[in-house]
Amino acid sequence: MNISQLRRSIEGGEESLVAGVRAIRPNTESLEQAQAFVQLTVLELLESNRYGAAAELLWGSAVFDPRPVSVKRIWSAINRYHKLILLGAGAMGKSYCTAIWMLLDWIRDPEGTSIKVISTSEGHAKSNVFSTLTSLYRSAIVKLPGLQIDKFIGLDTKQLDQGIALISIPQGDTGKGRLRGFHPRPRTEAHPTLGKHTRVRVFADEAEEVPPGIWDGIDNMLANMDASGSVKVVCATNPKDPLSQLADHAEPVQGWPTIDLDVDQQWISKDRWEVLRIDAAQHCENVINRRLIFPGLMSWEGFENLRLKGDGNSQEYFCFGRGMYFRAGTVRSIIPLSLLDAARGNFVFTRSATNAGSCDLAFEGGDRVVFCNGRYGLAEGWLPANAERMVRFAEPVYCAELQGIYELPNLLTLAQTEQLKSECKRLEIPGRWFTVDRTGNATGVHDALRESWDSEVRGVNWGESATQQRILQEDKEMPEDLYADLPTEMWFALRRWLEFHYFLISPYVQTRRLYSELTKRQYKLGAKGPNGLARLQIESKKDFKLANKGVSPDYADACVMFIHGCRMNTRERQPMPGLTRIAERRKPPPVPPSPWDPHKYVRIAYD
Predict the structure, then answer these.
(1) Under 8 Å between Cβ of 380 and 586
(2) 3-state helix, strand, coil in the chain (%, to 5)
(3) d(CA 272, CA 253)
(4) Are residues 497 and 350 in the same domain?
């Protein structure tokens, strides 16, 4: 049977439907018989896994066209994999194609299939994925099983586990418990092809914005995952936030820096998710041929508008044009994510390194007490994360490695003092190598540590001026000439140490919160310095919190204090590796004075 011809023959209303079916089955006499034939044909197509043909029969090619490469790749991945992340460019059909597949999968087995559509807000879901599902359900050429009401498509409103239900999560809700108990169950009678258990599916649209509690429910649900496909999770998004929990799940085994934008289109992540990239430059016929072939998909003109932003080096182009995370940072970012990507590893120290630490204390409402610990010493090279061979330095240099960053309880002054002393002693951090915040209310803890433990504990006042200690050997100007204050100096010192691999973060450190704070801090030009030139200045903590939902950069502040303490405690200055240096000019040997020089010639008397 040619499905395309059948679809064309039954279009045009009830009379066309009956006439089209009668051409195939002459004994068809009523509309009900014609509809039953089409419904059975759809079920046969679904049972033989011909979902594209079933979609064409139900809605026609004007509603759903299975020919584009992006559609084929999306459906092939959904059919094959049970936990799938779709990273896609804009207008490439990620949500639309997945919604159609989910509806068809439910039609195949409405009594034994439960689908949850997750959205961060009810308004978003109703205007996007669920509105698509509702429209498709109503516009099919024959009546589909069950009924459709607000936020539900199913057989019975009293049995919400046998249909397609919308889970909308209000702003601020963690989403915890929303998928509790969502598992396959034994069937009363085994399905001839689908087995003895019911099926559960989750579709998370705009999955970067899904709250963390939902991921706990997904992990719990995936405990029942097996080869039969009874459990399936699909997460789709435009890859905007490289520090989201979804990006963490999608990270390749060897890390994001290993991804080649023009080569890597699909991979298995370190958390064993199948990740599929939908790249408009390689998977959109409209863009490849520079003319409109499939209406509704991204156009060549739209792609070019994205590419021209930043000459192909912008977040918009990477996200909406190439379906990939942009990790280079904004123009005003002090520390781009690409530097942090390259800083995961461990140093190979030549001799015993010194344990060092720092702590950012909470002296404002909402702040957290964050403790850092690590090592500082002379290293001969470093071992990148997931690598087996050491990267050797041309000559040993002094480096710092962050080995832990975590929160401590926020206590009163004396109790906090004892807590920090105990933590430093446990980690064998000498007082001289411990740097603590001494701004505002934190001054009491700093003073108590110096009085009761070690007088060499270093304190950092966030209102101080920049120092006169160069960051690298080759610096021609002092920090006080370049930076408006001490916080700016500390942040740029971290930036420069990262750039030349003098600072590493151990692969065992949990970095999502740290990376988020480090990459979002921006800078601007401040007042003129002693040399008459404008100095750099980081944005204030207040401005940072306003732009980041009130979150204070406590993790980042603890990290930059850790580097600052290492810098201030030693006289060694890290050089710029690989720098071509001008050969030192030798002074010519002294020339004896000429006897004809009237100023140096001594007259000789003749008799």
Answers:
(1) no
(2) 35, 20, 40
(3) 9
(4) yes
pTM (2 d.p.):
0.80
> Sign (positive/negative) of CA torsion 126, 132, 137, 139?
positive
Query: By the 8 A CB rule, do 294 and 96 touch?
Result: no
Count of structural domains within the chain: 3
CA 364 vs CA 23, 62, 408: distances in Å: 79, 59, 15
Given a contact cutoff of 8 angstroms between Cβ atoms, the answer to whether 243 and 228 are in contact is no
> Are 12 and 84 members of one domain?
no
* pLDDT digits 0-9 by tens, 424-449: 999 999 999 999 999 988 899 999 99
In a domain, 175, yes or no: yes
Domain that holds residue 40: 1-48
Same structural domain for residues 144 and 270? yes
In angstroms, what CA-CA distances link 403 with 23, 233, 468?
75, 35, 29
For residue 371, what are the β-bridge partners?
A: 359, 406
Answer whether residue 80 is part of any domain. Answer: yes
- 576 within a domain of the structure (yes/no): no
Whether residue 154 sits in one domain with residue 19: no
Is residue 338 within 8 Å of 352, Cβ to Cβ? no
Q: Which of 428, 433, 80, 82 is nearest to 224 (CA)?
A: 82
Based on the domain organization, do 298 and 446 belong to the same domain?
no
Claim to verify: residue 124 and residue 248 sit in the same structural domain: yes
Cβ contact 436:359 at 8 Å: yes
Q: What's the token pair of residue 431? A: 């007082």
The tens digit of pLDDT for each residue in 60-96 reads 999 999 999 999 999 999 999 999 999 999 999 999 9
Q: Would you give the end-to-end CA distance of the chain in angstroms?
A: 136
Q: Which helix (H) or strand (E) holds 445?
A: helix 443-452
Residues 199 and 238 both lie in one domain: yes
548: domain CATH number is 3.30.420.240
CA–CA separation, 582 and 185 (whole Å): 75
Q: Answer whether 52's CB lies under 8 Å from 75's CB.
A: yes
Report residue 336 as tokens: 């781009």
Q: Show the tokens assigned to 43.
A: 């079920």
Quick one: tokens of 121?
């807000």
Q: Are residues 23 and 73 in the same domain?
A: no
